[in-house]
Write a structure and sequence with these properties.
Radius of gyration: 27 Å
Helix content: 10-25%
CATH topology of the largest domain: Rossmann fold
Largest sheet: 8 strands, mixed
CATH architecture of the largest domain: 3-Layer(aba) Sandwich
CATH superfamily of the largest domain: Alpha/Beta hydrolase fold, catalytic domain
Structural class: alpha+beta
Oligomer: single chain
Number of strands: 35
Number of helices: 10
Number of domains: 2
Strand order of the largest sheet: 1-2-4-3-7-8-9-12
Amino acid sequence: MCAKNFLTAVYFIFAFVFYCAAEVKIDEKAMFPLTDDSKQKDGVKYGEWIETKFSSSRIFPGTERKVWVYVPAEYDGKTKACIVVLQDGPQFHIGNVISNLLAKGEIPMMIAVASSPGVVEGEKDEDSPRANRTLEYDTPSPRFADFIVSELLPFAETLKTKDGRKIILSRSGNDRMITGFSSGAAAAFNAAWARPWEFSRVFTGAGSFTGLRGSFANATLVHKYEPKPIRFFLQSGSRDMWTCFGDWWSANQSMVRALEFAGYDFKYVFGEASHCGFQANMIMPDVMRYLWKDWPKPVDASQKSRNHILRSVIIPGEKFVKIGEGACGARLVMVENASVILADEKSARLISGAGESGLNAGIIAKGVNADLLLQNGTLKTGAEKKFLDIAENVTCAKACAARDGGFYALLRFGDSKSSLARILPGGKIVPLDERAVSGGAVAVSANENWLYVFDSATRRGYSYKLLDDGNVAFKQEFFFLHVPDECDGTLAGSAVCDDGGCLYLATSAGIQICDYNGRSAAILELPMGERPVSLAFGGKEMSELYVVGERGNVFKRKLKTHGASAFTKSPKIRVGAG
């Protein structure tokens, strides 16, 4: 990239930050002076900055960016170092802060890796590049975290100091901090939120939790997700920006309130700062002390969320336990006696009660698919252990059992799109709604009042009133579901209900727990971010949730709640309008 183009890129990055200079009525530099730990001082050895460029990204193709790596003088080039990752280049006087705090023994050995956002040079007008800053930083998706972990940090490890020392970085998320200012702060939050096993310590200065892209939703998600093992430090000011994209002051207040609600370990510093970064610079030594306190003790996930749905469902200390693998394409089905079957197109296996050693290998049926619909057009119920004949040209996308021994199902007739139908105990098909649904999930509420149907290609979920004769009425788009930025739909694949009125839905955002009024109120995540695809309650008292993930891993987790099914007594549910 030519010098002129680089200057253009710098303008795009910083112009909006320094717009405040004309508005400032006070001297913020004097109001927020640097402490001694941000300055160079006698008796402390300072390291070196390695400056280079990176232009071979696969995740953000065509981009070029500058990269800076700070290596402390004391680093031996032989052992793994902790990491602080910075956006928008080396900020916060981070080199001085690291060396000063290392000299005091207040932080572990640490290397700083900083980069500018990517820029793609124009073909016909080279001085009009495509600036990737808001795309990379303000988008709440795993993409930027993946870029850092799989591209930026490995690239940093190819570099050496002037005296030949190698750079060896820790692979542990407990040893990684990520930080930034403004949109760079949003990037830090988004990366850790998407990949908490990669980044456990986050600082956000004047975070852009606003409508630049999608980060305005983060505070809401903090309220709903089961808390993650992340420690936060936030800074914002009363004189921050207020633009067409939102109010930075109130957005940061909302984030702080969300973290408090969810019980996170965090600290917040608020002042009269504008969007110019002086206060963030001033507090950086304290930020480092707070985020790295007690290291190497891992940052634990909070057990103190005030989310009433989470509190009614999860048992403190209980986590998802992997009980098997190799189940790609398989689905879970609950049958009588709270048993759980794992079924694919070849066989069905009983897994309920299996220990951590793996899945029970006992095959109980052959030739069944995910919802116990045979490849040859027949169907097996868990209740009566018999086959039901249906038309040969009918295939089942998803189904759930009814208490009369039949099923509610999304069926495909020949090459047509799926439609909702009822399958009577004798095998007769009764069409209910021919309007096409893209895959999805089907469930009956625990009290048999409602039939729930979800479209996997959108965020839409529907409620039908179940009539005494088994038919449906009063279809309504009823559910509000969260969809990650990187997905167009929920990818809803499976739905089950508990006896308290909640519905559990396997989606692209995790296991969304919807209350009786159709609201996604709590979200559980599988280990390492694996997307859930199939769910079933089973085990003693129907209090174990079994899950198949997209990578074929099978998990179970003990919950406070109890699952409902066609084989359990219909409970009474009393829930207000909300």
